């Protein structure tokens, strides 16, 4: 009686565990909002990156990263100083030879007479200014209004005359001008959307957008805007007729996250970090990390690398834990059922042999 009750319990557990596992797996596969990984909160991101730095930011790793950065041409002094900040945070003393190499590199890069003309041009026109030059010149790289209507008009004229349309400038101009409508679709603030769109346009002019992110923006533009109708656009009201807000919402979300990134770190730091952004999901996770860490995000991503750093922004979701629980229960129940069946079979064989 007791044995049959135990078998019934094990069978019931087996069925329940199987049902839970199948249901959770189906939810993860069917619903894009139910993912195996979830984004960490600010405190979790800080704790996770602290653990990573404690394990991996050794004196050897710091020295190797600085040596690599000092060997680049042109040198990125924002990254160099950020890695030095991690060394100071970890209490790591840099080797004298490396300090001498760093001093010589700074002297070579910061000579006033070598850079004075380029600095003046950079400050006057961001299109002639790369990030390294802006850093060396201490140039006030600012998110000035770049003329969203003008950007749309330029694209319209180019389309009519057979010229080349700058689709990135056009896409971000559309986002900037449609900020209010996109906020309704994506949440957030229209001011943050405009800042993010402006940051993207500035990065475009300075040649800082990654090829992957450029492709993402172009694809989303074509999905969300009637390009053939653009030449007639003269105002935000005209634009509303040619924009499919739902289809353009991912681009609005991207602009929002770029705006958050800039607000959390500063314009120059955000421009530097854009090299690590290849799609909207990475922009959101990097913005989350920047809001948690502030400008320290630069040093941590430089030392840990993009892949490891972005892993620190994720944790296993509740849905995945639920599926693991179902699998564990399924395995335990299956072992119990099979064990019980083997025991019964063994007893029957023993009885037959005894008889």
From TrEMBL:
Spans traversing the lipid bilayer: 319-342
Keywords from the UniProt entry: Membrane, Transmembrane, Transmembrane helix
Protein name (Swiss-Prot/TrEMBL): Uncharacterized protein
Originating species: Fertoeibacter niger
């Amino acid at each position: 009686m007791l044995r049959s009750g135990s078998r019934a319990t094990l069978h019931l557990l087996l069925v329940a565990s199987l049902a839970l596992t199948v249901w959770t797996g189906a939810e993860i596969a069917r619903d894009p909002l139910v993912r195996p990984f979830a984004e960490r909160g600010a405190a979790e991101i800080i704790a996770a990156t602290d653990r990573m730095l404690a394990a991996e930011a050794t004196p050897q790793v710091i020295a190797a990263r600085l040596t690599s950065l000092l060997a680049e041409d042109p040198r990125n002094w924002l990254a160099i100083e950020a890695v030095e900040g991690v060394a100071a945070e970890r209490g790591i003393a840099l080797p004298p030879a490396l300090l001498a190499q760093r001093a010589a590199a700074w002297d070579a890069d910061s000579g006033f007479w070598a850079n004075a003309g380029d600095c003046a041009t950079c400050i006057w026109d961001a299109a002639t200014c790369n990030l390294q030059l802006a850093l060396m010149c201490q140039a006030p790289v600012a998110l000035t209004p770049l003329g969203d209507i003008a950007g749309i008009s330029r694209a319209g004229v180019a389309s009519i005359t057979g010229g080349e349309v700058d689709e990135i400038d056009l896409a971000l101009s559309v986002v900037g001008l449609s900020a209010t409508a996109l906020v309704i679709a994506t949440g957030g603030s229209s001011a943050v959307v405009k800042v993010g769109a402006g940051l993207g346009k500035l990065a475009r002019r300075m040649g800082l957008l990654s090829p992957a992110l450029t492709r993402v923006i172009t694809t989303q533009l074509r999905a969300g805007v009637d390009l053939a109708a653009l030449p007639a656009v003269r105002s935000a009201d005209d634009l509303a007729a040619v924009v499919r807000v739902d289809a353009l919402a991912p681009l609005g979300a991207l602009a929002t996250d770029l705006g958050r990134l800039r607000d959390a770190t500063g314009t120059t730091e955000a421009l530097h970090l854009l090299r690590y952004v290849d799609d909207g999901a990475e922009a959101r996770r990097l913005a989350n990390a920047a809001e948690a860490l502030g400008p320290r995000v630069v040093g941590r991503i430089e030392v840990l690398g993009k892949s490891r750093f972005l892993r620190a922004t994720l944790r296993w979701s509740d849905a995945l834990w639920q599926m693991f629980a179902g699998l564990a229960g399924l395995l335990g129940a299956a072992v119990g059922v099979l064990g019980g069946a083997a025991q019964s079979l063994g007893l029957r064989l023993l009885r037959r042999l005894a008889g």
